[in-house]
Design brief:
- The chain is mainly α and 180 residues long.
- It is built from eight helices and no strands.
- The protein is globular, with a radius of gyration of 17 Å.
């Protein structure tokens, strides 16, 4: 039985639950057309080749967005300090009607952390970029426990985004020798 296999964590100790709740709030934010055009990760700005600096408009859009979600970012930072995560799927019969919106919310949380990390790198804030990158890397196990193909695919998408983020931060020269 899939429900019996699931490891149990209280919601207060579960990074997955905390990130999902915040990701849900982040998804409800509507961006203006201009904001979306210039915003990486959360908007539609096209990623440039690694090592390329963002334009002034892109940096300003990122700073404005990050400032507008300051409370949610603080919640994400707190969530990332939780020691464990487990994604417990609410299985029902038939399984094809099981809804898993948390997967999208977790990806949104990872995008917000990535935007904060890359913005710090673009601004030359080495300490914040390092801390944010290490914290964002904690998302690599956020979907642990998911007994579903879609959960694994979302985890792969998050992992891929974090690998790309790591390369981009390194190529901005935003990491110290110790952090490397």
């Amino acid at each position: 039985d899939l429900l019996a296999r699931q490891r149990r964590l209280s919601d207060d100790e579960n990074r997955t639950v905390a990130v999902s709740r915040i990701g849900s709030k982040l998804q409800s934010i509507t961006l203006s057309e201009e904001q979306s055009e210039n915003l990486h990760y959360q908007g539609r700005a096209i990623q440039k080749p690694t090592g390329t600096r963002w334009t002034t408009r892109e940096i300003e859009a990122a700073q404005a967005y990050l400032q507008s979600i300051d409370a949610e970012l603080a919640g994400l930072h707190k969530a990332m300090s939780l020691p464990d995560s487990n994604y417990a799927i609410p299985w029902t019969t038939p399984a094809m009607i099981v809804q898993m919106p948390e997967l999208s919310w977790m990806r949104t949380g990872a995008k917000a952390l990535s935007l904060g990390t890359m913005t710090a790198a673009m601004l030359g804030d080495r300490n914040r970029a390092e801390r944010s990158l290490l914290e964002a890397r904690g998302m690599n196990k956020i979907v642990d426990g998911a007994d579903s193909i879609i959960g694994s695919l979302v985890q792969i998408a998050i992992d891929t985004m974090l690998c790309d983020l790591t390369e981009r931060v390194i190529n901005q020269g935003a990491l110290s020798d110790l952090a490397l």
